[in-house]
Amino acid sequence: MSQTLAEKFYYLMRLGREFEIRCKEEYLKGNISGFLHLAIGEEAVHVGAVVGFGKGDIFCPYREHVLALARGIDPRLIMAELFGKITGVSKGKGGSMHLYEPKMDFYGGNAIVAAHIPHAVGAGYARKLMGEKAGVLCIFGDGATNNGTFFESINMASLWEVPVLFLCENNYYAIGTHISRSSALKEIYLKVRDYMPAVQVDGMDVFEVYEAVVEAKKYIEEYGKPYFIEALTYRFEGHSMADKGDYRSPREIEMFKRRDPIDILVRKSLKEGWLTEEQIRIIDQKVEAIVEESVQFSLSSPEPSDEELYRDLYCGVCSDVIP
Ligand SMILES: Cc1ncc(C[n+]2csc(CCOP(=O)(O)OP(=O)(O)O)c2C)c(N)n1
Ligand SMILES: [Mg+2]
């Protein structure tokens, strides 16, 4: 079991890392435009959460490439979306912050901080009314937990017993603002402890995130009620490509880089015999080829036509009245 999991985690985390390193390069070449938020350093949270949660809806913020990859969305369609091409998962009209694939229950990124949290509660309530057990995984940052909609959603999910796993990825910053300057409570899970079970985990250890999420999912399915996890993590890059992140000291960044989630996974897996150097080499090669293919696919894909730009802007009824 641990061997299979370690292999899966390594593949997805390495894929996420290489995919985003390439995104950065393509952005600098001008092939990707608009906002680009990288999750380099946070892969253990994204992969552990999606794999651990399994079946169910996913709602997330704008830093969602690795979440989409972990859900199993084709890397070519994600890269093409970032390139603004019609073959992209949102037909090239959403870009990095709006990956959306309802066929895979991936309700995607949202550019507005905390706006997707009430959406997740609505989806969870709908699942409950339909008698489904799977529930909803809702991911958001530490900064989002200072937003009014967060508190309203927590209250309603608890009161109406909505099956949502609220997962806060606490990377200690909301753009350039450190958590100590924005949040009265530094331990975010304490904000909701009186409403639902709430725990804090090491978000740099994919096994720890995974186990906590599996536990949470069991609770959600058994009781049909919400659960909260705070995962402590760190982004190694700036908030977005527009941010150098120089409000953080090199010493602080170095300290967290020494706990790189991929290194932690590799060290543990080699020690326990869950992975071999040879397996790692093969996965690295495979990942490189997948990422390269996703870029070539995106480069050779067409842009959306002028006509296409006016589709999907409003719901069906409204589009009928738009010329
Ligand atoms: C409602 C709203 N307010 C402000 C912004 C600008 N903004 C974009 S990201 C961000 C920080 C969010 O921090 P956090 O929730 O910790 O997420 P992280 O980027 O660290 O993952 C802010 C303030 C926004 N997009 N939406
Ligand atoms: Mg943050």
Structure description:
46% of the residues lie in helices and 10% in strands. Helix 1 (2-29) packs parallel to helix 10. The longest helix has 28 residues, at 2-29. A 5-stranded parallel β-sheet has the order 1-2-3-7-6, sandwiched between helices. With 323 residues, it is an alpha/beta fold. It contains 11 helices and 7 strands. The relative contact order is 0.17. Thiamine diphosphate binds next to strand 2 and strand 4.
Question: In total, how many beta strands?
Answer: 7
Distance between the termini: 56 Å
* Total count of domains: 1
Largest sheet: 5 strands, parallel
Q: State the helicity in percent bands.
A: 40-55%
- Report the portion of residues in β strands: 5-15%
How many DSSP helices?
A: 11
Strand order of the largest sheet: 1-2-3-7-6
List its traits.
single chain; 323 residues; alpha/beta; Rossmann fold; 5-stranded parallel beta sheet; two-stranded antiparallel sheet; 11 helices; 7 strands; 46% helix; binds thiamine diphosphate; binds magnesium ion
